Amino acid sequence: MARLIEETAVEGCLAWGAWSGMEIFDQGDLLWTMTAVPFPLFNSVLFSRLGPGVVEGRVRDLQSLARGRGVPLAWFTTPLSRPEDLGERLQSMGFFLGGVTAGMAMDLSLLRQPLPPPPGLVVEEVGDARAFREWSMVMLPVFQFPDYAFDPWVDMHAALGFGPERPWRHYLLRLQGRPVATSSLFLGSRACMVASVAVLPEHRRQGIGSAAVLAPLLEARRLGKRLGTLCSSDMGQGIYRRLGFQEHCRMNLYLWMND
């Protein structure tokens, strides 16, 4: 299951290659994206299967490339990443551990219904770039994106397009008409993935987060997807477990800030 979680996450990120501002580099044993945006998540190593003897050289080459473009790097590792001590090696070369998430999955036929959401909560699917900008005004601050990443983030998703025929779909939740939460659904080749689940701090612990996750999962199930995946912080795991998700692996994020 860890392989499916990794595969779906990588597939979702590669879809962003539709944006002209992103380059994808695939060397077989190393796969990464790179842009001109000086925020780590726009310049990410997504897949690593390196031989022990080549790690230092490959990491130095990538750092040199990023240094030339003036951007930092994010490097994601999973239990399948190689070599097994890759995280330690990255830390010895200037990276630091920026976060740990749980790779979770579930059979969508076993999806549990959460408690009813608060009255007046409405889920809307984003249908155009204007609506996605409103969506981003909720999601990006919760995930601590800097202001300069706002326009590139919107442009990247606008290049993919919006609506039912697209691989990425986005949901905005309103409470009494006001935007309070977001979520996204990626429809991968073997599973779906829920991402960008964000609830404004003043509206948490009201069932809104569960509703934000449930909406894309129900749509994925309606479309015939059998398995759902996601990556969760420790804070968010309670919501996902109540819906039926189980943890299958840990995924580490290492950052190199190019300073």
CATH fold-level name of the largest domain:
Aminopeptidase
Beta percentage is 25-35%
Topology, number of strands: 11
Shape: globular
Distance between the termini: 37 Å
**Range of helix content:** 25-40%
What is the residue-averaged pLDDT? 97
Nearest-angstrom radius of gyration?
18 Å
The residue ranges in which pLDDT falls below 50 over 5 or more consecutive positions are none
- The CATH architecture assignment of the largest domain turns out to be 3-Layer(aba) Sandwich
H/E series, N to C?
HEEEHEHEEHHEEEHEHE
Number of helices: 7
Largest sheet: 11 strands, mixed
Describe this structure in words.
The chain has helices at 2-14, 55-69, 86-91, 129-142, 150-160, 208-222, 237-243, and strands spanning 23-26, 30-34, 44-48, 73-77, 96-107, 121-125, 168-175, 178-187, 192-199, 227-232, 246-256. By secondary structure, the protein is an alpha+beta fold. It has two domains: 2-101, no CATH class; 107-249, Gcn5-related N-acetyltransferase (GNAT) (Aminopeptidase), CATH 3.40.630.30. Strands 1-2-3-4-11-5-10-9-8-7-6 form an eleven-stranded mixed beta sheet, with helices on both faces. A hairpin with a 4-residue loop joins strand 8 (178-187) and strand 9. Helix 4 (129-142) packs across helix 5. The N and C termini lie far apart (37 Å). The model has no long low-confidence stretch (mean pLDDT 97).
